[in-house]
């Protein structure tokens, strides 16, 4: 935040700068003119400040309204919201719902996505800052940015109709040859996802593609700022290019890389439409990537048609509230890491 | 790292005739391996992009080459109603979020000193808002409009949800642009006796305009394809509806979901809608690049 210190500019609206009327008495025209300007300044300042406050108010409103809408359903919930992992029962008079399954699937697909995207993003960032010939930097940056420009629903469509079927033989091979690992067991009862490829693994890969640009952008930004002196010191000691990266660039940019990854994680946790198309069946809580599963976001999207009574809607809004809290924590943590770095 | 015999800055092997010893084999191998890995990472990242774009064009080109696709509503086999809905909702969201976002950025850069509680809270909350998942933004609008006020679904609600997603993007990019406006310009204006608000409106904003417009267009491209809000905030329809304040209103993401639900037979329409959506996003995206390059202030 080097520039923010210069953010405040002493302007004519500051009381000490505003020229006070000389005792001789200024011409009335100037007086009315400056009074009008001061009114304009006050109004404009209030408008801008009010808009600034609005952002905080909106966040508070989001939390408040989700809480108010979810509270009655949470109060009527006969199961424990945090431990009940059975089916969601929101029809009729009895409410029974809980988030462990949603939390599990959400975290699992996000973890797969991070596991795939983080090393690749690191590679791209190092390539762009250290290895790429000058004329390649702009096109590669542009292409990676393009990944972020494709709407998420299009990724979902591609994931279920193109990548999923392409993954079917891969999944079969994994089940047959690595089935002894907990991640690649034959799915228990839900076999349709094995034939369409709509598995947690496919979902994780698609998510990885979607969060790659954000991690890359943040990481690259930090790597570029590596002090030239660090780099030159390493070079002066006879370091190879890779040794420069390992001893100067990576230690300097590591926290930025982690916070970029957490921003990506925040995106992955809340991603709705891609996963809505790829995984939609509820799956068991185990670490089998060949299963399907429901995340917070897909659970809500799947049941949008059922928002017909406040009690039912409240149950889904409570899931949304849990997701909001989760992304809030992750994003705040990511910013905290960045903030500590710059301090 | 005990030897100091490399002469070249780029880690290149020793020049002929130099008295330096060449690089040790293992260090050279690791360096080469790292180089290869890094290039492989770039290639891996580009595979899905190329694959996605090729399949998109392959499956989607046929329906959209038919003029009816662009001209008639879904009732007559086209997608015009969905295109209109997407554009109306995005435009509405833009009209609301751009002035708000710019004002917030003006507050942060021109009025706050960056250390006051409100300034720090606002910066933090803009970050949090940019991390709010689209489905949560949609649920919020739903909770206010439907659960609390009991009013009907409409396209306007989608626009409101999009405002929540778009505003932080506008604030961020505008803030960056305002920060790089030279301080001298402001001071020159003050020296001439121009009040601060006029300085901001007449001097600061126009100087940063091309950057702000670019940022806004990128934000538009980002929210245009947001699809979670349409699922719960508006109903689908096959008829043309220009009015976001009454009745159901189709949009391209909603059309994709609806048609996908129809099964195999409708998949060409789904791909067509997807390609149309990507084309619309691409137009805005390219527009942003054009604004950024053509109208950028000249750098000395």
TrEMBL record, chain B:
Q: A GO molecular-function term, please?
A: phosphate transmembrane transporter activity
CDD domains (alphabetical)? TM_PBP2
- Gene3D superfamilies according to UniProt: MetI-like
The alphabetical list of record keywords is: Cell membrane, Membrane, Phosphate transport, Transmembrane, Transmembrane helix, Transport
The transmembrane segments are 36-61, 81-109, 121-145, 151-171, 203-224, 270-296
Gene Ontology CC terms, in alphabetical order: plasma membrane
User: Where do the ABC transmembrane type-1 domain residues begin and end?
Assistant: 83-292
Per the record, the GO terms for biological process are: phosphate ion transmembrane transport
- Tree of life domain: Bacteria
Localization recorded for this chain is: Cell membrane
| KW Transport (keyword) present | yes
Q: Which membrane topology term applies here?
A: Multi-pass membrane protein
The answer on whether this UniProt entry bears the keyword Transmembrane helix reads: yes
State the InterPro entries in the record.
Answer: MetI-like (IPR000515), MetI-like_sf (IPR035906), Phosphate_PstA (IPR005672), Phosphate_transprt_permease (IPR051408)
- What function does this protein fulfil? Part of the binding-protein-dependent transport system for phosphate; probably responsible for the translocation of the substrate across the membrane.
Entry's family note: Belongs to the binding-protein-dependent transport system permease family. CysTW subfamily.
* Listed name of the protein: Phosphate transport system permease protein PstA
Q: Which organism is it from?
A: Gordonia crocea
């Amino acid at each position: 935040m080097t520039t923010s210190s210069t953010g405040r500019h002493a302007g004519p609206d500051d009381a000490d700068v505003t020229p006070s009327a000389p005792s001789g008495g200024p011409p009335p025209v100037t007086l009315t003119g400056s009074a009008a300007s001061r009114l304009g300044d006050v109004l404009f300042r209030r408008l801008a400040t009010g808009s600034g406050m609005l952002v905080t108010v909106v966040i508070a409103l989001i939390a408040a309204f989700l809480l108010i809408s979810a509270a009655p359903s949470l109060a009527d919930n006969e199961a424990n919201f945090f431990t009940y992992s059975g089916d969601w029962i929101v029809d009729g008079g009895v409410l029974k719902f809980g988030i462990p399954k949603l939390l599990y699937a959400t975290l699992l697909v996000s973890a797969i996505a991070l596991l795939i995207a983080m090393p690749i993003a690191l590679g791209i960032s190092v390539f762009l800052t250290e290895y790429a010939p000058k004329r390649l930097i702009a096109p590669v940056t542009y292409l990676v940015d393009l990944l972020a420009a494709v709407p998420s629903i299009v990724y979902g469509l591609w994931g279920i109709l193109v990548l999923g079927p392409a993954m079917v033989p891969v999944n079969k091979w994994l089940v047959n040859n690595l089935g002894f690992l907990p991640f690649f067991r034959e799915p228990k009862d839900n076999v349709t996802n094995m034939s369409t490829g709509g598995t947690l693994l496919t979902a994780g890969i698609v998510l990885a593609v979607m969060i790659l640009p954000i991690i890359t952008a943040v990481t690259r930004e930090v790597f570029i700022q590596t002090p030239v002196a660090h780099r030159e010191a390493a070079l002066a000691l006879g370091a190879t290019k890779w040794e420069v990266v390992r001893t100067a660039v990576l230690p300097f940019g590591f926290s930025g890389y982690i916070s970029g990854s957490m921003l990506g994680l925040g995106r992955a946790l809340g991603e709705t439409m891609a996963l809505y198309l790829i995984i939609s069946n509820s799956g068991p809580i185990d670490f089998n990537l060949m299963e399907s599963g429901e995340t917070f976001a897909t659970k809500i999207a799947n049941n949008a048609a059922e928002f017909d009574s406040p009690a039912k809607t409240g149950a889904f809004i409570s899931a949304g509230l849990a997701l909001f809290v989760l992304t809030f924590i992750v994003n705040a943590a990511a910013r905290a890491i960045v903030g500590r770095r710059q301090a | 790292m005990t030897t100091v015999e490399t002469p070249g800055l780029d880690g290149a092997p020793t020049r002929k005739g130099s008295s330096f010893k060449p690089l040790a084999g293992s260090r050279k191998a690791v360096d080469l391996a790292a180089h290869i890995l890094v290039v492989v990472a770039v290639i891996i990242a580009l595979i899905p992009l190329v694959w996605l774009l090729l399949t998109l064009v392959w499956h989607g080109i046929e329906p959209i080459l038919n003029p009816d696709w662009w001209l008639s509503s879904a009732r007559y086999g086209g997608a015009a109603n969905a295109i209109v809905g997407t554009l109306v909702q995005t435009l509405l969201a833009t009209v609301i979020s751009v002035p708000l976002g710019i004002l917030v950025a003006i507050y942060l850069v021109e009025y706050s000193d960056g250390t006051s509680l409100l300034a720090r809270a606002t910066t933090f909350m803009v970050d949090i808002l940019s991390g709010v998942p689209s489905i949560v933004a949609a649920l919020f609008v739903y909770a206010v409009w439907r659960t609390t006020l009991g009013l009907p679904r409409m396209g306007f609600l989608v626009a409101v949800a999009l405002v929540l997603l778009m505003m932080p993007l506008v604030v961020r990019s505008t803030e960056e642009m305002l920060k790089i406006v030279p301080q001298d310009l402001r001071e020159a204006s003050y020296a001439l006796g121009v009040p601060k608000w006029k300085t901001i409106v007449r001097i600061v904003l126009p100087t940063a305009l091309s950057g702000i417009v670019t940022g806004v267009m990128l934000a538009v491209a980002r929210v245009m394809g947001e699809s979670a809000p349409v699922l719960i905030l508006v109903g689908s329809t096959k008829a043309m509806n220009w009015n976001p304040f009454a009745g159901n209103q189709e949009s391209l993401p909603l059309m994709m979901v609806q048609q996908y639900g129809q099964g195999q037979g409708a998949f060409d329409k789904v791909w067509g809608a997807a390609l149309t959506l990507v084309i619309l996003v691409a137009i805005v995206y390219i527009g942003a690049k054009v604004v950024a390059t053509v109208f950028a202030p000249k750098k000395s």
